[in-house]
Write a structure and sequence with these properties.
The structure holds two protein chains of two kinds. Chain A is α+β, with helices and mostly antiparallel strands. Chain A is about 15% helix and about 45% strand. Classes of the chains: A alpha+beta, B alpha+beta. Chain B: Pfam families: Acetyltransf_13, zf-C2H2_3.
């Protein structure tokens, strides 16, 4: 028997919205410590990692570790039926191939129940190595979303350069080019508007904006976002979810391609 | 004093067309995540045998096309005046298979009309491609082709040719089928089996055996070639199994 009630149902709605363009189905790995999701896109370019601790749910009950395979299409249809202030309860009985969703309005007047068929999704559990990043940048999530959106008008790749002066995002294309510089700020009143750069080594990396624009769909989940960068390694974009979980996106960088560079010069 | 050189208009358009000044865009290549996932890097398709890169859209598209080509077979709508040598009611080992509609073996000669040969050439090219041999794409003038048609598809094909001698295979080691040696002494032979091919999903049903039987009966008019007088070209692993079982001996004849 698995049962978990999320008071803020909107969190689930936002999470599903953020990943439904990247992957088509997910496995919810439920254990006594919480729920986790690991999903890679079909092109092996980015990976989504969701971790929700059991203390974010009230109540949370998981008698045995259980894996629930869900198609995101069905899931997003169902969670869209929930109001933002509803609480969402996820229930799954052992031995059945259905998962139940119960939405309750705050005053308890309206309850809705939905059932989705579970899927048997062949997936493997990947060990994500702990990485020591060269630069870790914490910034307002809406700022990051804005940068990615603006830069995608100029080109399909964004260059992220982190130095001791700050972080620079740049993109160029047929039309022209653009650069956005952000400097470390500590004098802002609100903590979530701060830009905080922890720099061990300067880094300079290129990423596909298409994926970053998928990631920034998670912006409503959190006021801040953390970008962890390391040379020649995947970027890690982290959106904390309250104080009980996080949503992480890993994205493989793009590198200068000598073969195609030579081909285009000819 | 600077002079402005006047160029004809056409030449200027030409210049513009030939050297459009592209803005320099740095070409970049998207890397992939490697967290040790199962389906990563080169994958070999179990059905069509193609090796391709999982997750690379162009490769997957190529594979899809190739897979479709291999698995859907070659369409054959039939000819008005086809040379039917045998009609097949059912295949030996087929029991669960749906009934075969209009299954027959056709004989094609290199002297047949051009329209027929054109179709044959495309079939030969397809088969050679699948067998992995360099293709001429044509039926040799001294060769005969027999093909088995079922449900408007070419499900099997055999090309035989006239030969005078063959060489006996020496190696007795059947388990190691990929390597073998043959005698240097030639023995008389009449019919050479140039290639044998059966459509993937129709294998192990005795189609090749039926084709070869038909070939022996129709190779020379009024004469049935004995099994001992046939020789094979350099066989594949599957081909060798077939030849051994057909001739009833691991020491069958080969020729080049």
């Amino acid at each position: 028997m698995f049962e978990a009630r999320l008071i803020q149902g909107s969190v689930l709605k936002k999470m599903i919205d953020a990943i439904k363009d990247i992957v088509t189905d997910i496995n919810l790995d439920c254990s006594s410590t919480g729920i986790s999701v690991q999903a890679m896109d079909s092109g092996h370019v980015c990976l989504v990692l969701i971790e929700l601790g059991s203390d974010g749910f009230e109540p949370y009950r998981c008698d045995r570790n259980i894996t629930l395979g869900l198609g995101l299409k069905a899931l997003s249809v169902v969670v869209r039926c929930a109001n933002n202030d509803d609480s969402i309860t996820i229930k799954a009985q052992e031995g059945t191939d259905n998962i139940n969703f119960v939405f309750e309005s705050p005053n308890g007047e309206k309850t809705s129940q939905f059932e989705i068929k579970l899927m048997d999704i062949d997936s493997e559990h990947l060990g994500i190595p702990d990485t020591e990043y060269d630069s870790v940048v914490k910034m307002p999530s809406h700022e990051f979303q804005r940068i990615c959106r603006d830069m995608s008008q100029l080109g399909d790749s964004i260059v992220v350069a982190c130095t001791k002066d700050g972080i620079q995002f740049s993109a160029s294309g047929d039309m022209g080019s653009g650069k956005i510089n952000l400097r470390q700020s500590s004098l802002v009143d609100k903590e979530e508007d701060q830009i905080n750069i922890e720099l061990n080594d300067p880094v300079h990396l290129t990423f596909a904006l298409r994926y970053l624009n998928y990631f920034t769909k998670a912006t409503p989940l959190s006021p801040t976002v953390t970008l962890s960068l390391k040379a020649e390694s995947p970027l890690c974009v982290t959106y904390p979810i309250g104080d009980f979980g996080s949503m992480k996106f890993f994205l493989a960088p793009k590198i200068d391609d000598e073969d195609t560079a030579a081909a285009t010069q000819e | 004093m600077a002079t402005v050189r006047k160029r004809p208009l056409i030449e200027m358009i030409d210049v513009l067309g030939k050297n459009p000044k592209k803005p320099k865009i740095l070409a970049t290549k998207q890397l992939h995540l490697d967290f040790g996932q199962k389906f990563f890097g080169p994958v070999q398709c179990k059905r069509c045998g193609m090796l391709y890169s999982y997750g690379q859209s162009q490769d997957e598209l190529d594979h899809y096309e190739y897979h479709k080509k291999i698995t859907s077979g070659i369409r054959f709508d039939g000819w008005k005046n086809e040379r039917r040598v045998e009609a097949i009611e059912s295949f030996d080992r087929v029991s669960s298979h749906p009934p075969m509609k209009d299954t027959r073996i056709l004989l094609v000669l290199p002297t047949d009309i051009k329209a027929h040969l054109k179709k044959i050439d495309s079939i030969i090219a397809h088969i050679d491609n699948e067998l992995g041999i360099s293709t001429t794409g044509t039926l040799n003038p001294n060769a005969k082709l027999l093909m088995c048609i079922s449900n408007r598809k070419v499900v099997g094909c055999i090309v035989v040719e006239s030969i005078t001698e063959g060489f006996r295979i020496m190696s007795n080691d059947e388990n190691n089928s990929s390597s073998w040696s043959c005698s240097e002494k030639s023995e008389p032979a009449l019919m050479g089996v140039n290639k044998v091919w059966v459509f993937d999903s129709f294998r192990r049903k005795g189609i090749a055996r039926k084709l070869l039987d038909a070939a022996r009966h129709n190779f020379k008019p009024g004469h049935i070639i004995p099994k001992e007088a046939i020789a094979f070209t350099d066989p594949t692993v599957d081909g060798r199994h077939f030849a051994v079982s057909y001739c009833g001996t691991p020491n069958f004849l080969i020729y080049r």
